[in-house]
Amino acid sequence: MVVKVYGPHCASAKRVLVCLVEKKIEFEVVPVNVLEGEHKDPEYLKLQPFGTVPVIKDGDYTLYESRAIMRYYAEKYRSQGVELLGKTIEEKGLVEQWLEVEAHNFHPSAYNLTCHVLCPTLLGGSSPDPKVIEESEAKLVKVFNIYEERLSKNKYLAGDFFSLADISHLPFMDYVVNNMGKDYLIKDKKHVSAWWNDISSRPSWNKVLELYKPPI
Ligand SMILES: N[C@@H](CCC(=O)N[C@@H](CS(=O)(=O)O)C(=O)NCC(=O)O)C(=O)O
């Protein structure tokens, strides 16, 4: 049974797609036009009651939350493709730690910038708020300072191996650094810059970006 990934053009779905490519897992995509509100259709809400993308269907198995989906496939196909969870329980612990750091320290500010700078339609009619943009950038500076220190000792966030924690950053780092042109946030951080250049050069990321261009 081939896994179906709903909403491939959206950022959070790209975490899942990169994971599947790295693990050499065959997949199909089901486009969901969030700008037209298709993610709020009753049929879609039966799959994902919170009305966000992505969700996957793998036979009778349905799963949403992009990071949970990545963890599921990285575990289920552990011996296939690139190892994305580390080799020891200690390494796996660090992968989980940096996945949580991405979700709770990096993502909120990156998502705020996405809404207020890149896609104000996500604001539901409100106007972009310069104060939110300023505060979000300041928070990201603090996050990248911590990343700079971590990456001065390790090639990747969880250690000297590429993992789900690095994949999880790809879509919104691309929005912040490239789509928003806020590369100045990392340009003076040589280890963060080297890390970003490394992970964003991966064929898996560039394949997904080429196949499923963002809707914004
Ligand atoms: N925590 C969820 C977040 C999913 C999410 O917010 N998806 C956005 C699209 S994107 O920001 O990932 O591109 C969405 O559906 N937005 C539409 C909406 O919130 O109505 C996950 O990681 O899957």
Brief synopsis:
This protein is of the alpha+beta class and about 220 residues long. The chain contains eight helices and four strands; from the N terminus they run E-H-E-H-E-E-H-H-H-H-H-H. The protein folds into two domains: about 5-85 and about 205-210, Glutaredoxin (3-Layer(aba) Sandwich); about 90-200, Glutathione S-transferase Yfyf (Class Pi), Chain A, domain 2, CATH 1.20.1050.
Structure description:
The protein has helices at 11-22, 42-47, 66-76, 89-118, 130-151, 164-179, 190-199, 203-211; strands at 3-6, 27-30, 55-58, 61-64. With 216 residues, the chain is an alpha+beta fold. It has two domains: 3-83 and 207-211, Glutaredoxin (3-Layer(aba) Sandwich), CATH 3.40.30; 89-202, Up-down Bundle (Glutathione S-transferase Yfyf (Class Pi), Chain A, domain 2). α1 links the parallel β1 and β2 (27-30).
Low-confidence stretches: none
The shape, in one word, is: globular
CATH C-level class of the largest domain:
Mainly Alpha
Overall domain count: 2
Please bin the fraction of helical residues.
40-55%
**Radius of gyration from CA coordinates:** 17 Å
Tell me what portion of residues adopts beta-strand conformation: 5-15%
Biggest sheet: strand arrangement: 2-1-3-4
CATH architecture classification of the largest domain: Up-down Bundle
> What is the number of beta strands?
4
What characterizes the major β-sheet? 4 strands, mixed
- How many DSSP H or I helices? 8
Order of secondary-structure elements: EHEHEEHHHHHH
Mean pLDDT: 96
